[in-house]
Amino acid sequence: MLLVIDVGNTNIVAGVFKGKKLLVNWRFSTDRSKTADEFGILLQNMFQYADDMNMCDVNAIIISSVVPPVLVPLCHMCERYFKMQPMVVGQGLKIGLKLRYENPKEIGADRIVNAVAAFAKYAEQKKPMIVMDFGTATTFCAILPEGDYLGGAIAPGIGISAEALTQRTAKLPRIELLVPKKAICANTVSAMRAGIMYGYLGLIEGVVKHMKEELGGEAYVIATGGFANTMASGTDCIDVVDPLLTLDGLRIIYEKNQK
Fold first, then answer.
1. How far is it, in rounded angstroms, from Cα 126 to Cα 128?
2. Which residues of 37-48 are buried (b: 16+ CB within 10 A; e: fewer)?
3. Distance of CA 248 to the CA centre of its chain
4. Which one of 110, 133, 242, 248 is the catalytic residue?
5. With the CA atoms of 103, 142, 30 and 233 taken in that order, what torsion angle do they form, in degrees rounded to the nearest 10?
6. Top-level class of domain 98-249
7. Residue 219's closest CA among 231, 207, 230?
8. CA–CA separation, 201 vs 196, rounded Å?
9. I need a labelling partner for 176 at 20 to 30 A (CA). Which of 14, 96, 124, 193 fits?
10. CATH number at 2-88
11. What is the pLDDT of residues 175-201, one digit of tens each?
């Protein structure tokens, strides 16, 4: 079985594949202070509550990370608790895409992994693709049907935007992020929700509109990440929500690089 681990700035998402089938997946907070042993015990507990699964069944591991301080203890954890060195997404791996980027080393591992998965799963649409990942930051990536990765855009995540509003004002509370029923609201919480959600929906629709124009007028839009379903419920610019796109991308990259 293959253990895949994606380290984001806010959350770490892990999953276990048997062949192409995802058996289980977990999400836990990214803690830069955690040691290899703490990560090991955390995964032990998760495997303990997974049906018909054991850590000793894992025979390969692949990791992508945008948080360098977390990568080292995770690699040490793999060596100590799984008795193997993980494959790490980075330079030198086969990905099946042509990176049309000024400096490919600057591309975040998460963006590469998402692009690989989108190209593998949705190339049958025979259109350019736009991949939106709603994480700590919201990233937009453009891929041509031939497999050319063109780059994209990066915006502050909706969670960051909402948190900044709360932290920089004296009386505004933290709120749950839901698509509101109207824009003219008669109470503070609803007014905040309308401003944040409609404002952010306008942001993603605007970026997608400009990217489609640059791609020739049309594109297939894929959304993933923690807020993907929420945002998709408020706009028609998203064609499909694929919450496990990143895990699929890690599996595909591992398969392309098996010796």
1. 7
2. eebbebbeebbe
3. 11
4. 110
5. 160
6. alpha beta
7. 207
8. 9
9. 14
10. 3.30.420.40
11. 888 888 899 999 999 999 999 999 999
pLDDT digit string (tens) for 236-257?
999 999 999 999 999 999 999 9
The residues near 115 (Cβ < 8 Å, ≥ 6 apart) are 97, 131, 141, 143, 149, 249
Burial class (CB in 10 A: 0-12, 13-18, 19+), 202: exposed
Q: In the structure encoding, which two tokens stand for residue 166, read together?
A: 């709360």
Please report, for the chain, the start and end positions of each structural domain, with discontinuous segments joined by +: 2-88, 98-249
Q: Please give the Cα distance from 20 to 254 (Å, whole number).
A: 11
Please indicate whether the domains covering 2-88 and 98-249 agree at the CATH topology level. Answer: yes
CA–CA distance, 90 with 211 (Å, rounded to integer)? 26
Model pTM score:
0.92
Alpha-carbon distance values, 163 to 67, 168, 170 (Å) = 21, 9, 13
The pLDDT of residue 259: 66
110 is catalytic: yes
